[in-house]
Amino acid sequence: MPAAKWVPSRRGPLLAEDVTVQAPTTGNRIIAAINRDPLTAPHAIRNDALLAVLTATLAVVLALFVDDGRRPDALGWALLLVSHVPLVWRRRRPVLVLLAVVACVFPYHFLDYPHTAATQAAYVALYTVAVTGRPLRTVLVGIGVITLSVSVMLTISAHEALGLLKASGWVVAVLFLGVDVRFYRQYVASIVERAERAERTREEEARRRVAEERLRIARDLHDLLAHSITLIGVQTSVAAHVLSADPERLDRETVAKALDDIAETCRSARGELRTTLEVLREHGPPDARGPLPGLDGLPDLAEAARLAGARVEQTVRIRQAPPAVGAAAYRIVQEALTNAVRHAGPDVSVRVELEERQGALHLSVSDDGTGPAPGGTPGFGLVGMRERARSVNGTLDAGPRPGGGFEVAAVLPLTTTGKRTG
C-alpha cells in the first residue's frame, strides 16, 4: 500500500495544485482512538470483544506463570474466564459490567487463586466507568471497590488485606487515568465544536456580505439608470418640442444643445455603468473598488437637473463627511432630483439643502411641483433612499409638503459606521 496517494483537482488529473494526502500513521491512529468518544465509536462491540479475548489470554498466562496463590482448578478457571465476558458490553452498561466482573473476581480472590491474574478485567471495567461517567460517580465507585476488596481480603487474612490496601494505589491510578482521558476528550470536542462554529460563522458572514453587495449594486444600477434615463427623456422632449413647434423657424442652436446634453448624459451613464459592473468582475477585497461618490459630486447633479429644465437652488453648509455618509447623501440627492424632474411637472423649482447640526448631516430636497399622480404604481426610488439612509444608521422621511410640492428629508449621523455604500 503506498504511503501517499494523489487526489486530482477538478480541473484535470495531476495538475500542479493537486493535493497529496498522507496515509495515517500508527501514532495518528492511536491519537484518533484516544480522542474518539467511546459511546459513539464505530464497531464498539467487535473491538470490545477483541479486548476481552486479549485480556483473558493475558490472565491465563499470569495464572500459569505467576505464583501468588494456589493453581486454579476447574472452578478457578471458570471464574477467571467468565469475569472477562462482561467486558464485551463495557461501553453500554459500564456500572453493570463492573458489578458483573466484581461478582466473579471476589470469589476468585476469596478462594486464593492467583490474584494477579484477575486484576486485568477489573482494571478495564474501572477505567470504563471513569472514562464514561461523571467524576462524582467515579469517586464513589472507587471508594466502594476499595472498601469491598479490603473487606473480602480481611476474611482471608489481615496480611492479605494490608497488601491489597497498599496495592489500591493502582485502582486510584486507573480511575484518575479514566477521568483525565474523559476531560481530554471533552477539551478536544470543545475545540472541534468551536472550530465548526467559527467556520459556520465565516460562511454566514460571507453570505451576508454577498447579499449586501448585491443590494448595493442593485441600488447603484437603479439610481444610475433612473437618473440618466429620466434626463435623456426630458432632453429628448425638449428637442422634439423645438422641432415640432415651428418647423419653418427652426432653432438649430437649441436643438443642437439638447442633443449635446443627451450625448453627455449617455457618456456619463456609460462611465458610471462601467464602474459599477467592474465590481462584478473583481476578485479582490470589496474595499478595492475605487472611490465612492460624495458631496463633491452634488454640483454635477444640480447642473444635470438644470439641463433637464428644473430650477435648482443648492445650499451646502458642510465641507467633509465620512465616505459612506457622503455616498449615501449623494445617492439620496440624485434620486430626489430625478423624481422631481420626472414627477413635479414642467418648470419645477427645487431646493437642495445640506448642513451639519448636532453631529449629523441634515439633508433636504424639496420642490414646488405637482408631485406624482395619485394612484400610480410606486417604484423603488423611496425604498432605495430609505435603504441608503439606513445603511449609515440614519433616517429618511418623504412625502407631500403642506403648501404643495414634495420633500425628502434625511438625517445621517457623521460617525464611522463601518459599512461602505456606493
From TrEMBL:
**Pfam families in UniProt:** DUF7134, HATPase_c, HisKA_3
Histidine kinase/HSP90-like ATPase domain span = 324-416
- Superkingdom is Bacteria
Q: Quote the catalytic activity from the record.
A: ATP + protein L-histidine = ADP + protein N-phospho-L-histidine
Give the EC number(s) listed in the UniProt record. 2.7.13.3
Q: Where do the coiled-coil regions begin and end?
A: 188-215
What UniProt keywords apply to this chain's record, in alphabetical order? ATP-binding, Coiled coil, Kinase, Membrane, Nucleotide-binding, Phosphoprotein, Transferase, Transmembrane, Transmembrane helix, Two-component regulatory system
Annotated membrane-spanning segments are 49-66, 95-111, 117-133, 140-158
Annotated protein name in UniProt: histidine kinase
Q: Which organism is it from?
A: Streptomyces violaceus
